[in-house]
């Protein structure tokens, strides 16, 4: 199954939400978690150190989650990185936009720990295929 | 810039306004023209502001020497409307109510900042309490599990008297510790509960802001109806992808309201 040491990058402009996601990940056994407050900071971190998984919000200053997703998918070294969106953006357009640009999963806020667990499981399953 | 433009007090601002409109149009060539009044009011008597404006318009250094016709007529209409609005506002006493509305905006901003602060504090307090209480619960759980194993051994008659004595005293320690942990945890639970008091406070503040917004809307609507009966309704929800939480999902088909719908949509698209 999944490696509990894998390194997560949680991207959200609200520190509370980052903290909640971090706690949930810890609850699921993933304690190797880094945070970034917007897409720009996240992209910098992704390029300068090794990560295994990105969990990102959509609506953020400087660089949004969808822009980050596009940048990640366009980068030859990052393009296979699992990328889970957790966002309050709930328009169908948003979901389709994220999916067509290669998001690995899409969770709408407010969400539960069970949802996160399930989506992570699904993504890991696809990774191992 | 020409002397004429330099001398005229308003023209710099007007030029900026015009430039921004031209830029906006150039940027989105396919965009529909801005909602100009359907029928520019025939200026039966020359409106005071219009002549001054025209001089500055004709002398403005637009590439090509002159502005294209739609832009010019729009520009003129705006000027005329501004004047009419200004006069009419006075007549109707709207200037007072709009003043009130404008004064209410900083107030609303402060209120919203207040809500942001309160909710942040509440979240922070709650998370801190959880962080502090969790290790205690983990400890109680782990110790208890260990002791259960020991007691199971006793019941399976796999324990001598010395081991039994040790077990009893360890169990006693565990109970003491559990009692104190439980007490502390209860205090944290209380803290978590108290942290929710923001709901009451923010609820009241939000209600005030909603009332204020309603009032502003009423004023502005009355105002708009007065002056642009033919104006098209603003396009409902253009296709922006940055909207934030959906607070008005009822009756809408362009949004999802739960995770199941997200999953169904993605599945239906083959993702």
UniProtKB/TrEMBL annotation, chain A:
The modification 4-aspartylphosphate is found at residue 57. The keyword Iron-sulfur does not apply. Gene3D superfamilies: 3.40.50.2300. InterPro entries: CheY-like_superfamily, Sig_transdc_resp-reg_receiver, ST_Response_Regulator. Keywords: Phosphoprotein. It comes from the Bacteria. Residues 7-124 form the Response regulatory domain. PANTHER family: TWO-COMPONENT RESPONSE REGULATOR (PTHR43228), TWO-COMPONENT RESPONSE REGULATOR ARR22 (PTHR43228:SF1). This is Chemotaxis response regulator CheY.
Automatic annotation (TrEMBL), chain B:
InterPro entries: Chemotax_Pase_CheZ, CheZ_family_phosphatases. The keyword ATP-binding does not apply. Its main location: cytoplasm. Residues 1-70 are annotated as: Disordered. It comes from the Bacteria. Residues 30-44 have a biased composition (Pro residues). GO terms for molecular function: hydrolase activity. SUPFAM superfamilies: Chemotaxis phosphatase CheZ. The keyword Transferase does not apply. Keywords: Chemotaxis, Cytoplasm, Flagellar rotation, Hydrolase, Protein phosphatase. It is found in: Cytoplasm. Belongs to the CheZ family. PANTHER family: PROTEIN PHOSPHATASE CHEZ (PTHR43693:SF1). This is Protein phosphatase CheZ. It comes from Parachitinimonas caeni. The gene is cheZ.
């Amino acid at each position: 199954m999944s490696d509990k040491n894998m390194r997560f990058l949680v991207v959200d402009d609200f520190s509370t939400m980052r903290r909640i996601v971090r706690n949930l990940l810890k609850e699921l056994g993933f304690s190797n978690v880094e945070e970034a407050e917007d897409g720009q900071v996240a992209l910098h971190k992704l390029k300068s150190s090794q990560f295994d998984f990105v969990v990102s919000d959509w609506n953020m200053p400087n660089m949004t989650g969808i822009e980050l997703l596009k940048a990640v998918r366009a980068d030859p070294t990052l393009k296979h990185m699992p990328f889970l969106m957790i966002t309050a953006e709930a328009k169908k357009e948003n979901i389709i936009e994220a999916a067509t640009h290669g998001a690995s999963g899409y969770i709408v806020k407010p969400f539960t720990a069970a949802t996160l667990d399930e989506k992570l499981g699904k993504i890991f399953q696809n990774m191992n295929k | 810039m020409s002397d004429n433009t330099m001398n005229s007090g308003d023209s710099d601002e007007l030029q900026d306004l015009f430039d921004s409109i031209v830029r906006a149009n150039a940027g989105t060539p396919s965009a529909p023209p801005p909602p100009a009044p359907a029928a520019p009011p025939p200026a039966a008597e020359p409106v005071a502001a219009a002549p001054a404006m025209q001089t500055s318009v004709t002398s403005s250094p637009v590439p090509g020497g002159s502005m294209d016709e739609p832009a010019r007529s729009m520009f003129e209409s705006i000027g005329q409307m501004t004047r009419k609005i200004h006069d009419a506002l006075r007549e109707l006493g709207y200037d007072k109510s709009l003043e009130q509305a404008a004064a209410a905006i900083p107030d609303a901003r402060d209120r919203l900042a207040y809500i942001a602060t309160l909710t942040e504090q509440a979240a922070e307090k709650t998370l801190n309490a959880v962080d502090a209480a969790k290790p205690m619960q983990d400890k109680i759980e782990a110790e208890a599990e260990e002791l259960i194993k020991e007691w199971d051994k006793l019941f399976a008659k796999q324990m001598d008297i010395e081991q039994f004595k040790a077990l009893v005293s360890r169990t006693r320690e565990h109970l003491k510790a559990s009692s104190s942990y439980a007490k502390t945890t209860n205090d944290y639970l209380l803290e978590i509960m108290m942290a929710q008091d923001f709901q009451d406070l923010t609820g009241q503040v939000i209600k005030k802001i909603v009332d204020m917004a309603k009032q502003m809307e009423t004023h502005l609507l009355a105002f708009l109806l007065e002056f642009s009966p033919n104006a098209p309704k603003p396009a409902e929800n253009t296709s922006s992808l940055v909207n934030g939480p959906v607070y008005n999902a009822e009756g809408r088909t362009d949004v999802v309201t739960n995770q199941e719908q997200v999953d169904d949509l993605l599945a239906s698209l083959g993702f």
